[in-house]
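Sequence only, no structure available. Ideas?
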Amino acid sequence: MPRLSVDPPVRTSVATATFLQTITASDKGKPVGRAVWASSPTQPGAVQIVALEVHPDRARQGMGSLLMTRLFDEANQRARNFNTPLRRIWIVIEQKTQIVSRGFLTRHGFHHVKTLDALLKDEAAMVYVKSFD
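Reply:
I predicted one. Tokens follow.
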């Protein structure tokens, strides 16, 4: 069973700074996946997923779901520290190369809300959002 670690813990975060946390999944001491997310002190109920990656050898084994679930829990705790509900989590992915990711996000309750044609070189960027209210 993979072990999850967080850096830094939500409970030690400074309320006046943008918060950036990395959740690392390790198996037998080797990293096999990570999730990175950010939250602003002015909008603690809105979270951006900066990265969600699983080692190719561990793809389609539940590792991404394990990371996503922990990310939801950590983001929810961060919002509660500000006495506000977690309202939205959003992520931007590449349209052409992240086809599997689109299905993964949909299974986790995200919805495609916008396509940005001029953001990335040679392909569009897709914005996905999960609402909690």
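The first strand starts at residue 3 and ends at 7.
Hope that gets you unstuck.
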